[in-house]
Amino acid sequence: MAHSLIIFWHRRDLRVTDNAGLTAAREASPKIVGVFCLDPNILQRDDIAPARMAYMIGSLQELEQSYAELGSRLLIIREDPAKGIPGLAAALGAKAVYWNLDVEPYSNKRDRTVSQALKEKGIKVKNFWDQLLHPPGAVSTGNGRPYTVYTPFWKNWSRKVKSEPLPSIPKCEMVMNLDWAIDTSPIPVVPLPSAKELGFVWEKPLILEPGEKAAFAQLDAFCNVGVFEYNDLRNFPGLNGTSRLSPALKFGTVGIRNVWNRSTIAWEESRSDESRLGVRTWQQELAWRDFYQSVMYYFPELADGPYREAWKNFPWDNNPEHFQAWCEGRTGFPLVDAAMRQLNETAWMHNRCRMIVASVLTKDLIIDWRWGEKYFMQKLIDGDLSANNGGWQWSASSGMDPKPIRMFNPATQARKFDRDAEYICEWLPELSGVNPEYLITGKIPVEERDRCGYPDPIVDRGKNQRLFKELYKRQKEEIVEQKEIG
Ligand SMILES: Cc1cc2nc3c(=O)[nH]c(=O)nc-3n(C[C@H](O)[C@H](O)[C@H](O)COP(=O)(O)OP(=O)(O)OC[C@H]3O[C@@H](n4cnc5c(N)ncnc54)[C@H](O)[C@@H]3O)c2cc1C
What we know:
By secondary structure, this protein is mostly helical. The protein contains 22 helices and 6 strands.
């Protein structure tokens, strides 16, 4: 009996192992062809980081090889998916197209259009949840509503049984006349371009090598050693204390079930309360990832602006020169500047520093958090709508978390987490000869600043924070008044 061809459409699951949709496709038929669509709607956006593109293209190169090893092919198209996926599926005579679902508003809209077009052509569609440990809806409040606060979400989420990693998929069957179908397809199949050919230039090393093999090796290395010390080391930006798996989790070069499985093995191997705490704390970060994605799925309006009322018309100062100084690491606050230079140099920033620079941008420079959110997306290798938006709204206090005003003092943070100013000096080498005490407190004598060519602080933080609190109070009062009048 001849088997039907199934197309598997890869999006943010650039791997062949532990892939829910691909495994299901392979179970349904031995004739599988993979497709990746370089979507102009995404590539033309103005918030695409070159390093993210470099990581994605490198991962697709490896995925092409993985398909070849399976006896099949990964086809690349450069089209609007609404036209490209149904057009290619019809040209290849596919009976079905399978893919894994995503939570982002654009993806959901796109998927509905593609599904509709495929069904009109008589081609079946099958979708799966793959990128989360518990898909949206699986963890909900007693009333069946989505959680909007992390702690109760975590309590419920952590009690739920997690799926095991999926077995490797067997080899595929050759698809007869595939080359002929590709040659005559109205949707051109193109060679995989380089990131540079797509207009994105990133020539520095990436914090994680692209592809499934490197992601798995990194997961293994971290779960063999680093995870046990995670609770102690994760807040020190100068140490290599976190997994650095974020690009892999963004693009799905590693399966989340495999990640969880490795963490549970580490839990079983833990020999002390301290190492168990390390594993547990890391698992809590994986839950944050699930939380922010679930929140984005149920409240897609978050992608367009603040969740909390008081922030909708907040009178931000939005001084463009201050913003530029923040972007370039020239604010005169050493820890902030070091972090921004780390971001600009490596396309990655330590989590603690992400919180600090976000707090300084919003509460000290009084600049709209959406400016920072976009700048992060333009730079980060792991830039992800849900995590980035969640992180920014958390830092700006505009999100769901009820705690109203969260302010990080870079000097207190440096004293706690960069005691010897090693991180500061790594990214601001011009400050290397300066007494670490000055760098931590930020109170660098004028002559030292002049000698190093390091700027004075661009704002008086104390004054601006008082102003910020006043603006916030007024904004809240106005809302209450409007509600009463209304
Ligand atoms: C303002 C701000 C913006 C952020 N933007 C992003 C972003 O665009 N993409 C992104 O992946 N993370 C983002 N984060 C979360 C976090 O900073 C990164 O996930 C983390 O630094 C990545 O390093 P790691 O892989 O070594 O993390 P680890 O500490 O090893 O954590 C393991 C994984 O858990 C997930 N994770 C950890 N913390 C969070 C979190 N707070 N929210 C959601 N997921 C988390 C990530 O997938 C991470 O790779 C942001 C945080 C803030 C405060």
